[in-house]
Design goal:
- By secondary structure, this protein is an all-beta fold.
- It has one domain: Maltoporin, Chain A.
- The protein is built from three helices and 43 strands.
- The strands form eight sheets. The chain has a 22-stranded antiparallel beta barrel. A five-stranded mixed β-sheet has the order 3-8-9-6-7, with no helix packed on it. Strands 25-26-32-29 form a four-stranded mixed β-sheet.
- Strand 18 and strand 19 form a beta hairpin.
- Keywords: Cell outer membrane, Membrane, Receptor, Signal, TonB box, Transmembrane, Transmembrane beta strand, Transport.
- Its main location: membrane.
- InterPro entries: Beta-barrel_TonB, Plug_dom, TonB-dep_rcpt-like.
């Protein structure tokens, strides 16, 4: 394990040094199932993709097995603990305290987050309360940016299979008592054929991608124990997804400012704004894949997110409080053309709205004795959905505004049974408001189409954790957690009919017609475990998650009752080893296993299990310089990503080899 840099401090010469970190985690985190990823996992990931690095988290799941180089962005939301996902994730993802999910749809723009810019990743599985936690049904992932204490300026460039090019640069330097960190990245490549060889036809092509990002972060003191943290970011992402007429892309710009005071009563204030635009095109493909024609052009899906938080941390002897409030606003509209007449798409569809969530939270941590910590927290949210609308051809519908109150809470304890052993337990409830995307935007995957549903109800979870943390050495740790979780009114894509035919909200559908509906529930139970060990220059890490999850459905969703949620695997395992060479060299490898899962809600399209092996090395050649060599999926294992209703299989992450050079200042 490792320590995050200490808070800003005054030196003997009265120079103020700041770190750019948030307030430290509240004492009550000891009662939670919490994992801090070892630094060896954050550096030099063979794929260079942040989402692949996070696959080390027990139970971590994107909706599909592909990463941000070939997936549609709508499948990039994060879920933990096997309750299933769709376009939106069911875990909260924060970068320096700011929610990073798309304000319209809830997916994560992974190309905008450079893995090398992070100093730490802290994961809390299970729902709960706290800032922005409405929506954290299955947990929270906190990404923390590095500063000059934990990283240096540098530049890396590498060339890989299928004309892949990755370039990453960082400029980090102190200015007075503060610092500035600038990160830039470019990734592009010709991509691979995502359709399996046995299913390919004349329409199938490679899947090229082109991605850029630029971020700047400035941190400076505004007093002996106060600092201001300002961040701005821009990113662009374009992908072609295996066919000439199937594409997706995102453009975005984010800005945030955070004030941190570490005085007698620590205070943290935060404000942010997000401007995003999504676009995608879809095709109708002949059964033998010999021809394609346009089916849908979502030419502009603009979205805006605005948020703010104020939090204070007073302490009274053995009692620590955390009290605050936050607000999140999201607005967006999907603009799309459909109804192909042989020449062009002739009809226009527009749908969208806005959502607002205002919440207040209170947490009380009590060190009842040297061995026993008690914690309890509550949160109350007021939500509203307004300006909801849907227009298509000559019809237009304005949906009624809706609002409501949602309580949530968490209570737990941590008991030090021995100097190296802590036993912990927590019970919690949380909720999630459906995204504007789920409420208003239809979508397609191959011949299948899914309609939106403006009447979706908020989701709610109830769960209990029991586990232990064993730390026999400062460099060794083992954590095991058992959990039971029930998620009510979970939003799922429910199969209602089979085409060909014309269906409301989507138009002509050749394959399966689905609609987003609230399932009665998803029930999940399982075990999560992780361990890490450092022996000199050698770092070892392993994690495992077993999840037994079942859907509960009635009415239109009765056919789904008893089935496993789509894309949820029973077993996920990860292990890695890394050996440091000199100051800037290393050699390492990782192996990941994911068991069989199902593409669809009726368990008719199984996706086979796989074992994925990555390896990489940085070989020092001169002061600050190293040659880098890495490989993804070294055995070229078949990773099935999806199966459409006609049986055509798409694949993810084939074998990819990289070679490059890296300079560290």
């Amino acid at each position: 394990m490792f320590a995050i840099a200490a808070p800003g401090r005054a030196h003997a010469n009265d120079e103020i040094i700041v770190t750019g970190t948030a307030l430290p985690a509240a004492p009550g985190v000891a009662a939670d199932a919490t994992l801090v990823l070892p630094p060896a996992l954050l550096a030099d990931a063979p794929s260079g993709q942040t989402e692949n690095m996070l696959a080390a988290i027990p139970g971590f799941q994107l909706f599909r097995r592909s990463d941000a180089r070939s997936a549609n962005a709508t499948s990039q939301g994060v879920t933990l603990r096997g309750i299933g996902g769709n376009a939106a994730g069911r875990a909260l993802v924060l970068l320096d305290g700011v929610p990073v999910t798309d304000p319209f749809a809830g997916w994560v723009p992974w190309p905008a987050i450079a893995a090398g810019s992070l100093s730490a990743v802290r994961v809390r599985t299970g729902g709960g309360t706290g800032a922005f936690s409405a929506g954290a049904l299955s947990g929270a992932i906190e990404l923390m940016s590095a500063g000059p204490d934990t990283r240096s300026s540098g530049l890396s460039a590498r060339y890989g299979s299928r004309d892949g090019i990755d370039v990453d640069g960082a400029l980090v330097g102190r200015i007075g008592g503060g610092f500035v960190a600038i990160d830039a990245s470019h990734a592009s490549g010709d991509g691979f054929f995502i359709t399996a060889p046995e299913d390919r036809g004349a329409v199938d092509t490679a899947s090229p991608y082109d991605q850029q990002s630029l971020s700047a972060r400035a941190v400076f003191p505004v007093g002996a124990d106060k600092e201001l943290q300002v961040r701005g970011a821009w990113f662009q992402d374009s992908r072609q997804r295996g066919q000439r007429l199937v594409t997706s892309g995102i453009d975005g710009a984010d800005a945030s400012v955070r004030f941190v005071s570490r005085g007698a009563v620590p205070v943290e204030a935060l404000a942010y704004v997000q401007a995003r635009s999504y676009r995608a095109t879809f095709a109708r493909t002949a059964g033998d894949r010999s021809a394609e024609q346009p089916a849908l052009d979502q030419f502009n899906v603009p979205a805006t997110g605005i948020g703010a938080k104020l939090e204070a941390r007073p302490s009274f002897g053995a009692h620590d409080l955390r009290v605050g409030a936050d607000w999140r606003h999201a607005s967006g509209t999907t603009n799309e053309r459909f109804a192909f007449d042989g020449t062009r798409l002739t009809a226009l569809r527009e749908a969208g709205g806005r959502s607002d969530i205002f919440g207040m939270f209170l947490q009380h941590d009590w060190q009842a004795s040297d061995a026993l910590l008690l914690t309890a927290s509550v949160r109350m949210d007021r939500w509203s959905l307004t300006n909801g609308r849907f227009s298509e051809r000559s019809t237009s519908t304005d949906f009624a505004d809706r609002s409501g109150w949602e309580p949530s809470g968490r209570a737990g304890f941590a008991f030090s049974a021995a100097p190296a052993l802590t036993i912990r337990s927590a019970a919690y409830t949380n909720w999630r408001l459906p995204t504007l995307n789920e409420l208003y935007r239809p979508f397609r995957v191959g011949p299948d189409a899914t309609a939106a549903n403006a009447a979706l109800r908020p989701e709610r979870t109830y769960g209990v954790d029991v586990g232990f943390d064993y730390r026999p050495l400062s460099t060794a740790r083992l954590s095991v957690t058992g959990f039971i979780l029930r998620a009510d009114d979970i939003v799922s894509n429910i199969t209602l009919a089979r085409g060909p035919g014309v269906f409301p909200g989507t138009g002509f559908v050749f394959g399966a017609f689905r609609q987003r509906l609230n399932l009665d529930a998803v029930e999940a139970r399982g075990i999560e475990a992780s361990a890490d060990l450092e022996i000199g220059r050698l770092s070892l890490f392993a994690s495992y998650a077993f999840t037994d999850a079942e859907q509960r459905g009635s009415g239109a969703a009765a056919a789904q009752d008893g089935f496993r949620p789509p894309q949820v695997a029973r077993n996920r395992a990860f292990a890695s080893a890394r050996y440091r060479i000199g100051e800037n060299g290393h050699v390492g490898a990782s192996i990941r296993h994911v068991s069989r899962q199902f593409e669809d809600d009726l368990e008719r399209r199984p996706l086979d299990s796989f074992v994925h092996i990555d390896a990489g090395a940085a070989i020092p050649i001169a002061r600050g310089f190293a040659v880098t060599l890495s490989g993804e999926n070294l055995t070229d294992a078949r990773i099935e990503d999806g199966i459409d209703i006609r049986g055509a299989t798409t694949l993810a992450r084939p074998r990819t080899m990289w070679a490059g050079i890296k300079w560290t200042g």
